[in-house]
Amino acid sequence: MDGLTRTNELVFVLAATNLPWELDAAMLRRLEKRILVPLPEPEARAAMFEELLPSQPDEEKLPYDLLVERTEGFSGSDIRLLCKEAAMQPLRRIMTLLEDTKEVVPEDELPTVGPIRPEDIETALKNTRPSAHLHAHRYDKFNADYGSQILQ
């Protein structure tokens, strides 16, 4: 970038934003390549779910295929939120159990947090909505107006 350093060395700047249309003209001029990263494809979503919600050997296998199928249009951030929601379900079960108990449970008798169940996935899918589609037309317009065409 102009004025960033006083040497003759090149400077490489990598930046990311979810709202590229909010960038001012001066910033756009300095970002030579503007590349729209699309929403994750099914293979990428499957890898994200396997990383964020790994199955344990002694537990029921999570329905990754269902997750991939039902998350078309989800961004990486949406998928992370969905996984957090699924992971919270076992804790919510314990909290409900403890709230229903009238007496104080000794610490050594507290129930342990169980595994994520397929029904937890269903609950998370019902409670989590994709967000990227709200601006899909704006991303397409920005990419048409300012995006760099990458040849593969």
TrEMBL record:
Keyword annotations from UniProtKB, A to Z: ATP-binding, Cytoplasm, Cytoskeleton, Isomerase, Microtubule, Nucleotide-binding
Cellular compartments annotated: Cytoplasm, Cytoskeleton, Spindle pole
Domain spans labelled AAA ATPase AAA+ lid: 65-100
SUPFAM superfamilies (alphabetical): P-loop containing nucleoside triphosphate hydrolases (SSF52540)
Keyword RNA-binding included in the entry's annotation: no
Domain ATPase AAA-type core: 1-39
UniProt GO MF annotations: ATP binding; ATP hydrolysis activity; isomerase activity
GO cellular component annotations of the record: microtubule; spindle pole
Keyword Nucleotide-binding in annotation: yes
Entry-linked InterPro entries: AAA_lid_3, ATPase_AAA_core, MT-severing_AAA_ATPase, P-loop_NTPase
Main location: cytoplasm
Name recorded for this polypeptide: AAA ATPase AAA+ lid domain-containing protein
Species the sequence originates in: Populus deltoides
